[in-house]
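Duplicate of earlier report; Methylglutaconyl-CoA hydratase input re-posted below.
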Amino acid sequence: MADELVHYEVRRGIATITLDSPHNRNALSSQLRRELKEHLSTAAKDDQVRVVVLTHTGSVFCSGMDLKEAAGASAGDQGVNEFPAILEQLWTSPKPVVAALKGPARAGGVGIVAACDISIAANEATFAFSEVRIGVVPAVISVTVLPRLLPRQAHELFLTGETFDAQRAKEIGLLNAATDDVDAEVRRYTDMLALGAPNALAATKEMLQQERSTNLGEVFADMLKLSAQHFGGPEGQEGITAFKEKRKPSWVPAEN
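Output:
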């Protein structure tokens, strides 16, 4: 049996999923895709998991689809056919997902970065939509990338395939933070996310992903219903009581 290419660990409510295929720059091979999907499913179903961190070993976060596997395969046999399911898992995960990059991301790897709720990269990390330079189209990743990027920047970077740095990635909306200390910034975000009530976080993610009607009356009616459900629900009542009693809500993980 091949060695595991994606590792899974849970500590203090944080599930860390680590891409560990440095020999091919963490390319999205069939084995890596399969294991990543399995671990994301495990994290989503585990009530003890509050936040998911997606990180990597080696110098590259993810180089995109495994081109060695893609060579010679027909359209129906391409691994990219399985990729939308992974991006959808990340995008719709009921648990917030934080991407932690200490190295470059390319093509499908950038799609993964965009699919995560929060993405943090080292200042030296670089990015590129390199698809057009090898004769393919960044079609699948556009579903998660385009909602993040400024439109003018998306046109430029998708069409040119130009490499850009972490600071620009932050400026155009792909990253939340570019930093010299990725681990510290990840901890800062996971500590904040752990303060949120699990059901409230899941509902907030779902709300953020909804397409809005142009009818403000309909939007307000839908949002009022959602708000009232959570104000009157068990988490809302616990949070209000904890605030009044000047204590942490029951869902906040213990310090030990």
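DSSP finds eleven helices and nine strands in the chain.

Merging into the original ticket.
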